[in-house]
Amino acid sequence: MISICLIFFMLFLFFSLTFFSLSIYFMSIDLSVILELEMMSLNSNSIFMCILIDWMSLLFMSFVLFISSMVIYYSEEYMMGDINMNRFIMLVSMFVLSMMLLIISPNLISILLGWDGLGLVSYCLVIYYQNVKSFNAGMLTALSNRIGDVALLMSIAWMLNYGSWNYIFYLDCMKNDFYMQLISFLVVLAALTKSAQIPFSSWLPAAMAAPTPVSSLVHSSTLVTAGVYLLIRFHSSLGDKLLMFLLFISGMTMFMAGLGANFEFDLKKIIALSTLSQLGLMMSILSLGDSMLAFFHLLTHALFKALLFMCAGCMIHNLNNCQDIRYMGSLINFLPLTCSMFVISNMALCGLPFLAGFYSKDLILEYSSMSYMNMYMYIIFYVSTGLTVSYTFRLLYYTIFGEFNFYSNFSLNDNGIIMLKGMSGLIFMVIFGGSILNWLMFPVPYFINLPIILKLMTLCVIILGMWLGFELSKFALNYQLNSFNWLKISLFSSSMWNMVYISTSGVIPIILKSGIFYQKFLDQGWSEFLGGQNLYNKLSYYSSLSRIFSENSLKIYLSMLMIWLTYLLLMLF
């Protein structure tokens, strides 16, 4: 009997290859197709179900389906023995289909369906392992994303001014209109929450409570990339001030995540902070005016980040669900294939020539060197790149090259054939995907004209980051573990500049205290006396009065007749 994993794996892989072929065809003849189906008509407003099919949506869908097919195949072994295996696969499939709906929607209402679908299904997946930590993480994820959902609902309300929700028709012609500027701001706010930029960053590491295959899917091509993809679509309507604001926010996120990952010891959280840093990079280059370059990095990042999480999941699986990197070390001796793929995907993340990440990352940094950008943002770009290499090599030092620190009675091996096959499906694209996409998306190459110092700047930053990562690891291990100042710096950075505490323990006491105040002074105080209780007393009084009338109807009727006759006689005389 064929399992549900294999069915979805084959289905998604087939559609992925189909969409990729169609994308090349649409790209070659520069074709875009919009399909409209009228769902409902209300006065002058018609609600259409719209589908936008162009090379960008087809290419992104092919990547999402390819990665999700590999993740589902990988899940067959990773989730083996789980009693709710079919439910898990169905949730993952719903997650992917919500992303599909979001990608092909040029209409804000159909985008909201995919957007909310991602939010709701991600909550179900984060709380999949039902414990207190998962429930807290799921609630933080859901409530952080609700802010963006509300912003999207408000933008739908403002789009009523144009008589249609097909935003794609109004982006260029209404660019300077106040309503479109307001809608663009709301869309940027929605994208900031979904892509976990400052100040909504704390939910992204918390979402690591989900099973590792889900993390692989979320951090590569679905949930967190939805915000970046929406901004790529809305890019032509974003004003200069809004782009400058977005540049500052994304630059700070990129720097904060890179710094935090250098002090983190949880394997999955390090990779999650790495995703946050790369999302900041995508948003930054989008803010500088090149949405195609942001989309290019979005696709290449999806490939190596999915593989990175799958390798991490394989390690965690072998180490009896241990995620602390301080317990690892010398894993290359026990898991050679997994560690080889882990190193390759990490090198792609660092932008090592000529892997997938190099083509997009190097181009982004050289493009930023050619842009009219202030020194602050220029330094942030290069320092964040150096921090990326630093935490990557720190991670490799702890997991692969360092001393083995796990239990004495261990059993580590690379016998997970299905997991290895799932990872092997991605490794080819991690190595060659960047060059393939580069040739496809940019038929005319970028002309980068820089002096030799700026050309070598990226390489120098990478080498400096390698050195810093190794030195930081040895320094932390050998000298400063008990230092109070080192502990304060470590706690401040790994808590994402206290954003975790502000989002949870900083906000919750205020809400709880206001709830107690409301209950004490309003619900059981004057509100009760003047509201519900007073209303009850008045209704009781009037109902008892009406009951007297209804019970003595004949007597009252005769009395009223006598009063009326008396009044009539008085009026006559």
UniProtKB/TrEMBL annotation:
Q: Which UniProt keywords apply?
A: Electron transport, Membrane, Mitochondrion, Mitochondrion inner membrane, NAD, Respiratory chain, Translocase, Transmembrane, Transmembrane helix, Transport, Ubiquinone
According to its UniProt record, the EC number is 7.1.1.2
Q: Which residues form the NADH:quinone oxidoreductase/Mrp antiporter transmembrane domain?
A: 105-388
* GO biological process terms, semicolon-separated: ATP synthesis coupled electron transport; electron transport coupled proton transport
Q: Which domain of life is it from?
A: Eukaryota
The UniProt record lists the NADH dehydrogenase subunit 5 C-terminal domain at 391-571
Q: Which reaction does it catalyse?
A: a ubiquinone + NADH + 5 H(+)(in) = a ubiquinol + NAD(+) + 4 H(+)(out)
How does the record classify its membrane topology?
Multi-pass membrane protein
Q: Name one GO cellular component term.
A: mitochondrial inner membrane
Keyword check for Transmembrane helix, yes or no: yes
State a single Gene Ontology molecular function.
NADH dehydrogenase activity
Query: Could you list the residue ranges that cross the membrane?
Result: 7-26, 46-73, 85-104, 150-170, 182-204, 216-236, 242-263, 270-289, 295-319, 331-355, 375-397, 418-440, 446-470, 491-512, 554-572
Q: Where does the UniProt annotation locate this protein? A: Mitochondrion inner membrane
- Residue intervals of the NADH-Ubiquinone oxidoreductase (complex I) chain 5 N-terminal domain: 41-88
What is the purpose of this protein? Answer: Core subunit of the mitochondrial membrane respiratory chain NADH dehydrogenase (Complex I) that is believed to belong to the minimal assembly required for catalysis. Complex I functions in the transfer of electrons from NADH to the respiratory chain. The immediate electron acceptor for the enzyme is believed to be ubiquinone.
Q: Say which family it is in.
A: Belongs to the complex I subunit 5 family.
Official protein name in the record: NADH-ubiquinone oxidoreductase chain 5
* Provenance organism: Coomaniella dentata
Question: What gene does this protein come from?
Answer: ND5
